Amino acid sequence: MLDETIASLDTARDLFEQAGESGDYVIVLDPLRVRLDVDGDGTTGADETFAPFAAALFGSGAEELTAKQKSKGVTGLSQGIGLDRADALWLAGYSQVVAAPLDWLLAHDFHAFYDAYLHRVFPKAGLPMADYASGATLFMDADSDAGIADLIAGIHMLRFPVTDSDRLAGVLDRLKAIPALSRRNWDAILAETDDNLELVPSPSQTSLVPGQRVTQEMVDAWLATLDRVDAVLAGELLLPHWRFRQGFDLALYFAEATETDLVLILTGQGAVPFLRDGPIADAQDFADGNRVFGDDWPLFALWFN
């Protein structure tokens, strides 16, 4: 299933990149009318729309969101989003945001973790411990003690042998494609002369997000952040590890890892093969982004891609 999902995402990327090459077009999409089969029952009910996600993102329901936008003179999501060639590149980038972690999973054997813990998530999947979700009492009560035991087992099994080294190396290529596509996206955005229901607006365009305009300072900070991300992915800027004076070479990990043991990487032993001397990323490397976006940087990262 994951293989098919990745293949579909790669097909989508190719098509989105083609759509982003050229063309002066706008396709209006009303996201508040998009329906999602949230409960997996094969049908989409009246309440299974994008509106709850809009509420989570913007702190308002669909009607409240529209009212807020109108009060601020903003066109509003209720009138749709105008998808143009810049947005095609934005979507191409997001295809890799989704595909990269899936490819990372498929590069590993995670069956031991699945068997040890995921009966808690998929109780009817016939996993080895599914019939023992409750047992005898050790500290608190039968359900709580069994839950704690499963959590410990899950943490213990957070070690995944690499079964496809080429695939793991390919994850790095996907990660590198994300900032590259983001730059192409911003080149296209900044070249626009219209102002038509922009998903990601330029400093001269109107934002659909209530009270949040995009400034040139934001664009410059984002592009500077992409430069630092590129340096990390190229192994030119190392990641800090709390235990070592040397830095963790992310590019070396993707190229040479034979196992990903998350606990040992965190505690130190699993990180040793990927340590080397060189510049280590710190807050100063991302100072522009921190200064401009502040604590809201995760939301801007999701928006700007």
Walk me through the structure.
The chain has 305 residues and is mostly helical. It has a domain at 109-161. It has twelve helices and six strands. The chain has helices at 2-21, 51-58, 62-71, 85-106, 111-117, 142-156, 165-191, 216-233, 250-256, 262-267, 287-293, 297-304; strands at 27-29, 81-83, 159-161, 247-248, 259-261, 275-276. The strands form three sheets. A two-stranded antiparallel sheet has the order 1-2. Strands 3-5 form a two-stranded antiparallel ribbon. Helix 7 (165-191) crosses helix 9. It is globular and about 65 Å long. The chain starts with a helix and ends with a helix.
Task: Give the strand line-up of the largest sheet.
Answer: 1-2
Helix content: 40-55%
Q: Any low-confidence stretches, pLDDT <50, length ≥5?
A: 68-75
Which secondary-structure class do the elements indicate? Answer: mainly alpha
Q: What's the topology here?
A:
Layout (H helix, E strand, L loop, with lengths): L1 H20 L5 E3 L21 H8 L3 H10 L9 E3 L1 H22 L4 H7 L24 H15 L2 E3 L3 H27 L24 H18 L13 E2 L1 H7 L2 E3 H6 L7 E2 L10 H7 L3 H8 L1
Antiparallel strand pairs: 1-2, 3-5, 4-6
